[in-house]
Amino acid sequence: MSKSMEQIVALCKRRGFIFQNSDIYGGQQGFWDFGPLGTELKRNVRNAWYNSMVTQHDEISTPAGAPSPFQMVGIETSIIMHPNVWKASGHFDLFHDFMVDCKSCKSRFRVDHIQTRVLADAATQAPVACETYIVDVENESGLSKAQQKRLDKAGNEYGKPTIEQTMSLDNYLKSTGGSASAPVAHCPACHGQLTDPREFNLMFKTTIGALAGEEGTAFLRPETAQGMFVNFKNVVDSSRVKLPFGIAQIGKSFRNEITPRNFIFRSREFEQMEMEFFCRPEESFEWYKYWRDRRYKWYADLGISKDNLILRDHAKDELSHYSVGTADVEYAYPFLEQGEYGELEGIAHRGDFDLRSHMEGKLVRQGDELVVEKDENGQPRHRGSGKDLTYFDDQTRERFVPHVIEPAAGADRATLAFICEAYTEDEQPDDKGSMQKRTVMKFHPLLAPVKAAVFPLIKKEEMLGPAADLYRELKRAGIASAYAHQGAIGRRYRQHDEIGTPFCITIDGDTVDKGTVTIRDRDTLEQDRVPVDKVVETIRTRLDNYVV
Ligand code: ATP
């Protein structure tokens, strides 16, 4: 079944999953609010992650040695950190994109999102024209059909005897170096003149206290990870964890994305679920593979079909300067072309880059080595904390800097993937037996915002009373439940199918006479009769069967 983002976005708004932020004022681009059902769904996503990583984590066999339990602990660090954290980590200097604006239509583009096709004269090889088009980074193939047409037309103007070369605007500008004879790259939207590329740091700036100017400047964190690195020593000293161990955190991050888009896929305020796993350097590759596979399985276990989910290893030239291995878990979001995938989570082998940066200062690559970057006076460009962040292994009596494996996931991108995957349309007979289109959100029961809905079949006291009692009993047992007595029963089923409630319980004549109710399964539509005093236990057992 093909699903469109329009249908999904409309359902999210209609049923209270996700709203545009500041909607009544026309919205604020790149920011989103979660409505009542979206809040529950996202909370369930976060809980599933935290349970898998920390609370229910019970792994005792390590891939790289004798079986022994390893510890996973949580942490909650603040959104604003000391500005030097971002200087040492490299975000202050490196966490930026280049952008250009169109002087005519005022469109703003990321330079690396504009692709150029340079046409050169076949005889002289001199460039004669430069066509631009927008590469949708979430759609690597880049060209929409309309853009393709425009491009073909432009290409034809120069006839066949041309040589063409395709490269990003970034590379085109570098290769021409501002030469006056080079064809000008125009706005891909309106052909207007583009400004020179301007550097744009993605970190949101704010001011601490009453100090204006540089001294008071601080940043909203663009990732949660640094909270774990700067607290590495605090955690080791206070909780006496031994290598290997992980520190996990869920929290808000902020990036001033130049082009936020694709619903909650790329926004300016979002939530991350990150874990830093510290281990011995010689065991790090085994751990990298372990986390990479385990994180892929988490999405699959929670209902994402393997047809829509891939684990993609980064090519060498895609790796960050510190990473010795990275893989992305990617999902086939409906806003992408067939065969395209968007990042859900990155699992990176970060070596000792982060702990060393916070000890020594900002690191840069020099050949195979990471060395402290120096300024023109030979001094460290950005100093680290100067604190000792090494680990002492009391068994082997060695002191060393642990290596780090980082699975970094986005709670919003995961929630969006679960929503897209769950969205299903089918046809079912209505109360009168005629076929009706049904929209059903086939959420994994652990993620479903409402687990059970209680319906008295008709509005009669002998049914309303037991229904209300059962609803309260479910709630007291901690099972997210709803109660609805209005409208035809078929309509109530359909309303709950549309929000993904896995179990609908109906109180009917047999409840009054025999003390039984029906439990209807959202996906199979089968109805089981169960004694009313066994409902909580039955639902609990069914939910427990799904634990991942
Ligand atoms: P992208 O290449 O898509 O910009 P990234 O590689 O910069 O993402 P990371 O820095 O690895 O992302 O962040 C880890 C995770 O945080 C991502 O896999 C994604 O799930 C989430 N994330 C990052 N940026 C955003 C954003 N702007 N909106 C929503 N989620 C985000």
Summarize the helices and strands and which ones pair or pack.
Blueprint: H1 5-14, E1 18-20, E2 32-34, H2 36-55, E3 71-74, H3 83-89, H4 91-94, E4 96-101, E5 108-110, E6 114-121, E7 127-134, H5 145-157, E8 162-168, H6 169-176, E9 198-201, E10 205-207, E11 217-219, H7 225-230, H8 232-239, E12 245-254, E13 269-279, H9 284-301, E14 309-313, E15 325-331, E16 342-351, H10 353-360, E17 363-366, E18 369-372, E19 391-393, E20 398-400, E21 403-410, H11 411-422, E22 423-429, E23 435-441, E24 452-456, H12 461-476, E25 481-483, H13 489-499, E26 503-507, H14 509-514, E27 516-521, E28 527-531, H15 535-544
The structure holds adenosine-5'-triphosphate.
What does this 3D model show about the protein?
The chain has 548 residues and is an alpha+beta fold. It folds into 3 domains: 5-95 and 204-417, BirA Bifunctional Protein, domain 2 (2-Layer Sandwich), CATH 3.30.930; 96-201, no CATH class; 450-544, Rossmann fold (3-Layer(aba) Sandwich), CATH 3.40.50.800. The protein contains 15 helices and 28 strands. The strands form 9 sheets. A 7-stranded mixed sheet has the order 3-12-13-21-16-15-14. Strands 25-24-26-27-28 form a 5-stranded mixed sheet, sandwiched between helices. Strands 5-4-9 form a 3-stranded antiparallel sheet. Helix 2 (36-55) crosses helix 11. It is globular and about 90 Å long. The model is unreliable at 137-143 and 145-161 (pLDDT under 50).
Derived structural class: alpha+beta
What is the C-level CATH assignment of the largest domain? Alpha Beta
- Put simply, the count of helices is 15
Fourth-tier CATH superfamily name of the largest domain = Bira Bifunctional Protein, Domain 2
Low-confidence stretches: 137-143, 145-161
| Dominant shape | globular
